[in-house]
Design goal:
About 50% of the residues lie in helices and about 10% in strands. The chain binds one RNA strand of 77 nucleotides through helix 6, strand 8, strand 9, helix 13 and helix 17.
Length: about 575
RNA sequence: GCACCCGUAGCUCAGUUGGAUAGAGCGUUGGUUUCCGAAACCAAAGGCCAGAGGUUCGAGUCCUCUCGGGUGCACCA
């Protein structure tokens, strides 16, 4: 399975990187693919660097000698090679760099690719009957960003929301509902009522053993497949919850191709059990059905059925995986799920491996670190939660105040505040490396200055503002005199690196790479239009040239923000 | 007890698959607005990359151990 995405035409700095790699490969008699172009530490040294240490031995000379030799021998169009010690640096002709980067940035498929790969991203996956809290933020935001990025890279992307709508917890919920439920409260605020029931169940469970027994029976009734009162209640809860989730997704601008709860795979569970038996991997242990995984180096066996015959999380995930494979024949299936479930994914992949399902290699757990509060781990039961809507509301509220203060004359301030607030929250999440735990800090999430979503949005809005004031049709790049552009090198390089950043974001499943590439672009952009005034210079040719840069910058920021899921208002 | 993840500036984080003098933001200090938007820009100060060994031309990055934080380890999801 290929993981690299080749753009239709090398764009941005890839255009030069490919040429450099090809020339270097010929000179060193190597495959271009093995040559990794690095970035010189000093920007003044050029756009690309190749340390010559590893090639020196084969060339029978010292690294500095090799670097010097290659610098003298290589002839690459519009690229100048120089040696500094053992480092071979490449500088792109500024004129040519500006042309290539600007023209690629102005095309709709900038930094895209074309591949027929099918990528499934499973993300968000909240549990019915509980509110979405900050803990759901990471999977939702990271998953949605990865999905958009793979789509941009040319994959056929299938987004699946694997709603937690099945399992013994619903037996508990139904049992609690039958004892204490109030239809009136449920209508008024469904999630709050369901949450209250859930919390109460756990509070009273220890003192009243009949509760757990009732819950067990309720789930058995649910799993029996027979239409009954229990099932009706469960379906009602599900519908109410989904409606709540939809509201949050709408604010994030997220849609799914399939909202398939665990229950969707209900009728596939029996066949799955049979399949596991046929594969000869199941065995009984203390009454439960398990798959021993010691042969795969995993000590804990995978439980696929409880002693009282009900299915488990792993059972349903196995059924889901198999069903997806049969339906989509995916090239990759990414599970954007918290790192605390690493063992679960190792186990259930190992089960499939034991069954001879080679396609399990295409499945990948994309783990992320926990969001914790300063007071400790999030806990729905303990009431230690911050609702996702609450976070968004507070961010929007602050954004509203900021807009009111900085730009009171704007029309549709409310819509802009929503975009800024949501953008701040989303970007804050994507700014962190996936695997690291995040301590939730209101001040940080709600900050609009520095390395933040609103900073990127501001840069974008500034470009929009300049273009709006110029109020003219953009001249074609080929009729523009790019020699008039003196500065901007840093900006062009930053923009030119976007294709690589997007590619790597996909390969490493790490949105922080794109986030940082965008910050660099915005920062270089802010410096650019500060130093190079666009309008009112009295030189029309110069204005048009700079306007083109602003247009390319705006398009690039809009592209990147769109991929991350940060809204890009034209004014703010 | 075993396994996995994390430890970089006062704080929050990057660090180009092992390369050149470790970079941003916040905060601190100082500067920039008769000029396309100051949610911005410019500059200064701030580091024994948790600690100790090892691997090699070269280590924040790889290996081993120690310390500190987090997570998981059979009928929850």
């Amino acid at each position: 399975m290929a993981t690299h995405s080749a753009p239709k035409q090398p764009n941005g700095l890839d255009f030069f990187a490919d040429a450099i790699r090809a020339a270097l490969a010929t000179a060193l008699d190597l495959e271009p693919a093995v040559l990794v172009l690095e970035r010189p530490r000093e920007e003044a040294h050029g756009e690309f660097a190749v340390p010559c240490f590893r090639f020196a031995k084969a060339a029978a000379c010292s690294p500095p000698q090799l670097a010097a030799k290659l610098a003298a021998e290589l002839h690459i169009a519009d690229v100048c090679a120089t040696a500094i010690g053992p480092f071979l640096n490449f500088q792109i002709d500024p004129q040519r760099l500006a042309y290539v980067v600007l023209s690629s940035a102005l095309t709709a498929d900038f930094a895209s690719g074309q591949q027929g790969l099918t990528t499934i991203v499973e993300f968000s996956s909240p549990n019915i009957a509980k509110p979405m809290h900050v803990g759901h933020m990471r999977t939702t935001v990271i998953g949605a960003a990865l999905a958009r990025i793979f789509q941009h890279l040319g994959h056929k992307v299938i987004r699946i929301n694997h709603i937690g709508d099945w399992g013994s917890q619903f037996g508990k919920l139904v049992a609690a509902w039958q004892r204490w439920g109030s239809e009136e409260n449920l209508q008024a605020d469904p999630i709050a009522e369901l949450l209250q029931l859930y919390v109460r169940f756990h509070a009273e469970e220890a003192a009243d053993s009949s509760l757990a027994a009732d819950a067990k029976i309720a789930f058995q009734k649910l799993e029996s497949g027979v239409e009954n009162e229990t099932r009706k209640t469960w379906r009602h809860f599900t519908e109410l919850s989904l409606r709540e989730f939809e509201r949050v997704y709408a604010r994030f601008g997220i849609t799914f191709d399939f909202v398939r709860g665990e229950s969707w795979y209900e009728d596939k569970l029996e066949a799955l059990s049979q399949w596991l038996d046929e594969c000869g991997v199941t065995e009984l242990s203390d009454g439960a059905t398990i798959v021993n995984l010691e042969s795969e180096g995993i000590k804990t066996p995978c439980l696929v059925k409880t002693a009282h015959g009900t299915t488990l999380y792993a059972t349903r995930d196995l059924a889901a995986a198999k069903s997806r494979w049969e339906e989509f024949h995916f090239d990759q299936l990414l599970y954007v799920v918290g790192a605390e479930q690493t063992l679960h994914f190792q186990q259930f992949k190992a089960v499939l491996k034991r069954c001879g399902a080679t396609w399990q290699e295409r499945m990948e757990h994309v783990p992320f670190g926990l969001i914790r509060l300063a007071e400790g781990k999030l806990s729905t039961r303990a009431g230690r939660v911050i609702g996702l809507s609450e976070v968004l509301d507070r961010a929007v509220e602050l954004a509203r105040a900021a807009v009111e203060e900085k730009n009171p004359q704007l029309p549709n301030k409310e819509a802009i505040a929503e975009m800024v607030g949501v953008g701040a929250v989303v970007f804050h999440d994507l700014k962190h490396q996936r695997q690291k735990d995040v301590v939730f800090d209101w001040d940080e999430v709600l900050s609009f200055e520095g390395d933040t979503g609103p900073y990127l949005q501001y840069s974008h809005a500034r470009c929009c503002s300049i273009l709006r004031k110029a109020d003219r049709a953009l001249t074609s790049i080929d009729s523009i005199d790019l020699t008039l552009l003196e500065g901007g090198q840093e900006l062009f390089v930053a923009m030119g690196r976007l294709p690589q950043a997007i590619r790597e974001t996909g390969q490493k499943r790490e949105p922080v790479l794109l986030a940082h590439a965008l910050l660099k672009i915005a920062s270089a952009g802010n410096a650019y239009y500060r130093e190079n005034r666009v309008l009112g210079t009295g030189d029309l040719a110069l204005e048009n040239a700079r306007l083109l840069v602003i247009q390319a910058l705006r398009d690039t920021l809009a592209l990147g923000l769109g991929l991350l899921g940060v809204p890009a208002p034209e004014q703010m």
